[in-house]
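We now fix the convention by which a protein and its fold are recorded. The integers have meaning only within a learned vocabulary of local backbone shapes. A complete example follows; check for yourself that the lines match position by position.
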Amino acid sequence: MLTTRVIPCLLLRGKGLVKTVHFGDPRYVGDPINAIRIFNEKEVDELVLLDIQATANGTSPQEKIIREIASECFMPLCYGGGIRSLNQAKGIFNLGVEKIAINTCAVEDPNFINSAAEWFGSQSIIVAIDAKRQSNGKYEVFTHCGKSATGLDVVEHARRMEKMGCGEIFLNSIDRDGTQQGYDIDLVKQVSNAVSVPVIACGGAGNLSHFVDAVKLGGASAVAAGSLFVFHGKHQAVLISYPPVRELEGLLQ
């Protein structure tokens, strides 16, 4: 049995899925329902869906699309994007979503995490942190899909979010996003060592050995990837895929 979760991370923009590089230049990669059905067949055990326009544009979550995706999704689904209130969170859970990821609102109103964790349970609340390495070597938290610098130190923010009651940290490297050059192990290690809640490493996976590095060198509890699961070959043709569970078990057990 695979104990380390290997999670596809899908980016929703409008009605379609896209993939970014350094959080920019979104490239269309297909219809979300089609991708969900393929991941169902591959017996993926968890999925993260992030609406990259909702927070950036100040819009609410697309409930119709989320409902359609949740109804097709056979695995636990985490949704993030545009959630700013308990009522919005409740609406998302009522659509069939098991977890929500909070990013910008966690920075602008940290107490929201505490309220959401008390209302829905810590296991349902993930804080997503978009991190970028600065010239001094430290990592800064960015919001609004990587567009807004906050001045917050990533490790300090992660610790505060744990105290506020989040159940997991979804840690995404802006520098590594879409590069397929491997996770930022130093970033993953710093945050994993600083908190006791599970840390999901994201940003940079290009092959299965990168999963091993994030877990064994970085201390991540789970790994997430986008490009690795939607592109294939040197020409980056769009192909939704997922490794056989036995292959993952052999690497991550």
User: Anything to note?
Assistant: The chain has one domain: 5-252.
